[in-house]
Amino acid sequence: MIVCTQCRQAEPIIQIESHLLCVNCYAVLQQAEAHRQQATQQKLEAIRAHQNYLSEMMAFSMGLRATAPQHPTPQPIHAQINNNQMNIKDSNIGMLNAGSISNVKSISVNLVAVANSGAAEVAEELARVATAIVQSKDVDEANRDEMLQQLNTLSEYAAKPAQSRALGIIRPVVASLAKSLTNVANLAQVWSVSGDVIYSYFGIENPFKK
């Protein structure tokens, strides 16, 4: 059996150069890359702030401004959270078709962006729902694929700025996903908790709470 070259346990779903990665290791890679990009961006911002400080200090020295500038305070580089990773075992990967695997990969990437934007709670709940869908033994292939596709759509919009989220698309997708999840006992239980957070994040009223 071919296994992930990193954890040596799960079945791989993607190859990057010479490495075969499973869902969780791929998510970790994406998270590390996002953290690297964030650190680089913050370093560039610190350099620009220091350049501005030097320019203002020169202006002060030349009498072009009345007060000395304050040196910019460095902003900390925040570590990425780990709760938004999907915990999917290799035995569950074998249950997925190519479309579902593609959606799981895409959801993993989107959740990193969602968490990095500061929305750690909704990222965690989206991950919880995705994991439950994949691991459920009470869902057939067609319904699993459809639910993961819907969750992928929601994770894409969750990663966008609020003003860029198309509620006309999000509302029916959430409604359809909620209907499918509540028809399966173990998934209904997960949605009863995660759904509140997801509805609230998108600014949509939870119909189950009326």
Number of DSSP E strands: 2
Average pLDDT taken over every residue: 77
Structural class: mainly alpha
User: Assembly state here?
Assistant: single chain
SSE inventory with pairings:
Blueprint: E1 14-16, E2 19-21, H1 23-61, H2 90-93, H3 98-116, H4 120-135, H5 141-158, H6 167-182, H7 185-202
Antiparallel strand pairs: 1-2
Helix pairs in contact: 1-3, 3-4, 3-5, 4-5, 4-7, 5-6, 6-7
Keywords:
mainly alpha; 210 residues
Describe the model.
It is a single chain. By secondary structure, the protein is mainly alpha-helical. It has a domain at 82-209. Helices cover 62% and strands 3% of the residues. It has seven helices and two strands, in the order ββααααααα. The chain is flat. Residues 75-85 and 87-95 have low confidence and may be disordered.
Q: Would you kindly provide a brief summary of this structure?
A:
The protein has 210 residues and is an all-alpha fold.
